[in-house]
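quick one: iron/sulfur cluster bound model?
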Amino acid sequence: MRSAGTGAGTLIGGDEEFQLIVAERFGVEKPTFQGEGPSCGVPALFIRLSRCNLTCSWCDTTYTWDWSRFDPRTESTRQTVANLLAWALGSAVELVVITGGEPLIQQPSLIPLVRGLLAAGKRVEVETNGTIAPDPALLVDGVCFNVSPKLANSDVEQDRRIKPAALEAFASSGRAVFKFVTRTVAELDEIGALVERYGLDPVYVMPEGTTPEGLIAITRVLADAVAARRWHLTQRLHVLAFTDKRGR
Ligand code: SF4
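yep, here:
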């Protein structure tokens, strides 16, 4: 998932019911856009929640979960939903991307955040690894799930990264797109098997990489084969534009 920046905000606790563990939020002070998937290139605000239930070898946001390398006390803060809403609603940008880590670990507190954003006229994209089924309260107009099931290239055991019931729930929700981080043409067969088994649609293939050169090279390897399958090909536009700087 997209790496990002500073400005996690003030630690607030105790006085409000719903809190979320946040790694960072950005897009207000320094404008940016969604870099991946169906809204690629659209101006966006980002709320990155801390914590993940997977350990992908190529993860670019290890500061949300790898406590052998990072200190959770400095990499995350507890923030109230009210605080996050005040931040997001102070901007005219319509799209709010809730990402991670794995945001659905904190789903109970995510529901009031999403409701508040929608009530204020925002549109929400939730980026998830697809291992936790969405609460029906989040399957509403204005919410899209960008589901990114992990392939064998993540080096995560299959029974941890592929959860059939969760994938089936997303596939039948009508509110999900499925985005696969890919390095080789051979991996398209692995995606195809998941697509067929769980009815995943639409499919977005995204090159893996954190440098423009790496992304372009893999894009050129994949392009013809993705086009032949009539799938979408997406980029990591923020890496091309900002070379994977945090906070952009
Ligand atoms: S699911 Fe996303 S955040 Fe979690 S380890 Fe994998 S790439 Fe990183």
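The two ends are 13 Å apart (CA to CA).
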